[in-house]
Amino acid sequence: MGAALTRHYLAAGYRVVVIGRSSAKFDALVAMAARRHPSAPDRAEFIAADLSLVAESRRVVEHLQETYERIDVLVLAASFIRQRRRVTPEGHEASWSLFFLTKYLFVTRLAHLLRASGKPVVVNIAVPGARADAIDFDDLEMLEGFTFKRSNAQQRRANELLGILATEQNPDLGYITWGPDRLVRSGFAGEVGMGMKVAAAVLAPLLGRSPEDAIRPIIDIIDAPTPGRAAYRGAGVRPLIAGAHDEKDAARLASAVEKVL
């Protein structure tokens, strides 16, 4: 879906910065876009990075701070599914690092560049709807009792709380937690069991939609942003999960994360 969004906005004449691990894929994407839009290579930048590493994410953030005066749209879409607990060379649980620590860095450290935009938008591709109590504040890295289900729910809830922090800092910001409403025919990156791999390989071509169709709701949100928090599955609005202590939980999460960053 990230590639589809890149193609769309290059075709629309925007400047696009892509952060990822494969410069070859990026080069092929831009070469294809240049066939119809000769200026595309001049409006596209690739930053190579492993976003499961905090140091790499910090390096990217610093580059963006030094290079750009504003950011209009920030799409957080990096994904790599892990069903077992893995630890990065920095000592963080890998899924927590990729799906939240990196996103936290981008949203908080680039806040001033988003404020410089007239109608800034953050689209956080993290399926909304996790329980309000999904975060274990005493064990954010899940040293005890790791399961894919618990890990996934905690990341999703943390990204919803991140929206509270982001919009408190910038009331003009549109912060969208978004997830697809059905399978997407796209690449499947992750360390998963054979059952999930087979299901993805068989069901996605039969029942999934193309990346171009899947991103249409994201484009609509970006092109007509509304300040504040919102949640979507596809084009359908979903209610924000409200806990009894959301603001306190958001502040507690930020305090804990800042200590490790």
Write the layout of secondary structure elements.
Elements: H1 2-11, E1 16-20, H2 23-36, E2 44-48, H3 54-67, E3 73-76, E4 81-82, H4 94-109, H5 111-115, E5 121-125, H6 148-169, E6 174-179, E7 190-191, H7 194-207, H8 211-214, H9 216-223, E8 228-233, E9 236-238, H10 246-260
Parallel strand pairs: 1-2, 3-5, 4-7, 5-6, 6-8
Antiparallel strand pairs: 8-9
Helix pairs in contact: 1-2, 3-4, 4-6, 6-10
Q: What string, H for helix and E for strand, traces the elements in order?
A: HEHEHEEHHEHEEHHHEEH
- Output the structural class: alpha/beta
Morphology call = globular
Our Rg estimate from Cα atoms comes to: 18 Å
What fraction, in percent, of the residue positions are helical? 40-55%
Number of strands: 9
Number of helical elements: 10
Q: What spatial order of strands do you see in the largest sheet?
A: 3-5-6-8-9
Strand fraction: 5-15%
Q: Quick one: biggest sheet?
A: 5 strands, mixed
Q: What is the rounded distance between the termini?
A: 29 Å
The poorly predicted ranges are none
